[in-house]
């Protein structure tokens, strides 16, 4: 029997299972879950109860209660990296669950994409886990120290590491973040080196790798989210590259990712200050004094507007669902009454 604390289990989670056993979701396939538990890996069927609420169903990293060959309950999450599902929808999609750290991975092989990192950090801060920026392909960068300094200046309070899966630079520092029983999740676009970093951390070729395309855009090598066990006892969730990372209910994450902007905004004279030409605007004063980068304010505004639009869409979706349920209930009652009347 394995010690499930090495899989990230915390003793204060749940104590009653009514004959079921806790297991951690390592992979989600259509109609099947691969789970890790005290008796090792197993393939189980998710019951309908796992999709009964707004959780979106089981995600990699989740804990489930397993009875026999069926996962009967989805246990509460301590953290979740959640985006708006790609396409014309407002539905949330949990990319990874129950992480201690979110590794926001981007590449040093080309110009820094600070706005892209800002977006990922906003979601990462809102996940309930601690974000770390991992800048890969340091061997292809002429001055990785300068690039790291630039990201640190743009991401106050966030740990930033430069790594090279080819030379091994920084790989031990990443591994040190994921001690026994600690879980990390790698997120980022395609082609930034997530699969190569996973191979370097595991010491083997557990993930396929491909060359970046001629136009600099990444290629999808990881096709499914999966939980991997690391040699040092940590756990790492590998995720496919994301073409879209839509914000979803990330107001708190935005405030933490843009703590400098949020702090200045809290000192404005008027609570509804739009930080443009209002008197007593502390944000404008910080920009004038050179304390706040105006690009940071522009990025914050853009992501804030997106978050507000998405929240409005989500609220509309909830109202539509509630109205549909109410109409269905009315139809059911009418049908029932009509049936009783016909039998009299």
TrEMBL record:
The keyword Transmembrane helix does not apply. Keywords: Cytoplasm, GTP-binding, Hydrolase, Metal-binding, Nucleotide-binding, Ribosome biogenesis, RNA-binding, rRNA-binding, Zinc. GO terms for biological process: ribosomal small subunit biogenesis. It comes from the Bacteria. Its EC number is 3.6.1.-. It is an enzyme of class 3 (hydrolase). The keyword Nucleotide-binding applies. It is found in: Cytoplasm. Monomer. Associates with 30S ribosomal subunit, binds 16S rRNA. This is Small ribosomal subunit biogenesis GTPase RsgA.
């Amino acid at each position: 029997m394995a010690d499930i604390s090495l899989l990230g289990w915390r003793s204060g989670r749940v104590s009653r299972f009514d004959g079921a056993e806790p297991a951690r979701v390592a992979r989600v396939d259509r109609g099947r879950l691969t789970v890790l538990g005290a008796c090792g890996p197993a393939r189980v069927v998710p019951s309908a109860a796992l999709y009964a609420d707004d959780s979106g169903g089981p995600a990699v990293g989740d804990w489930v209660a397993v009875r026999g060959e069926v996962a009967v309950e989805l246990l509460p999450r301590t953290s979740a990296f959640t985006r708006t599902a790609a396409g014309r929808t407002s539905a949330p999609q949990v990319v990874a669950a129950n992480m201690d750290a979110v590794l926001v991975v981007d590449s040093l092989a080309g110009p820094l994409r600070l706005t892209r990192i800002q977006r990922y950090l906003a979601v990462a801060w809102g996940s309930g886990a601690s974000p770390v920026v991992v800048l890969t392909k340091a061997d292809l960068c002429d001055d990785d120290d300068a690039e790291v300094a630039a990201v640190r200046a743009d991401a106050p309070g966030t740990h930033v590491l430069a790594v090279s899966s080819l030379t091994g630079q920084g790989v031990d520092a990443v591994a040190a973040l994921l001690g026994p029983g600690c879980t990390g999740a790698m997120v980022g676009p395609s082609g930034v080196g997530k699969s190569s970093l996973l191979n370097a951390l595991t010491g083997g070729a557990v993930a396929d790798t491909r060359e970046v395309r001629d136009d600099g855009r990444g290629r999808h090598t990881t096709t499914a989210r999966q939980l991997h066990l690391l040699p040092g006892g940590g756990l790492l969730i590998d995720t496919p590259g994301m073409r879209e990372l839509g914000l979803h209910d990330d107001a708190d994450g935005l405030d933490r990712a843009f703590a400098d902007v949020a702090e200045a905004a809290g000192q404005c004279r008027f609570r509804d200050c739009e930080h443009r030409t209002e008197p007593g605007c502390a944000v404008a004063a910080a920009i004038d004094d050179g304390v706040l980068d105006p690009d940071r304010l522009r990025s914050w505004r853009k992501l804030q507007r997106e978050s507000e639009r998405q929240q409005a869409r989500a609220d509309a979706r909830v109202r539509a669902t509630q109205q549909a349920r109410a109409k269905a209930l009315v139809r059911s009652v009418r049908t029932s009454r009509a049936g009783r009347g016909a039998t009299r």
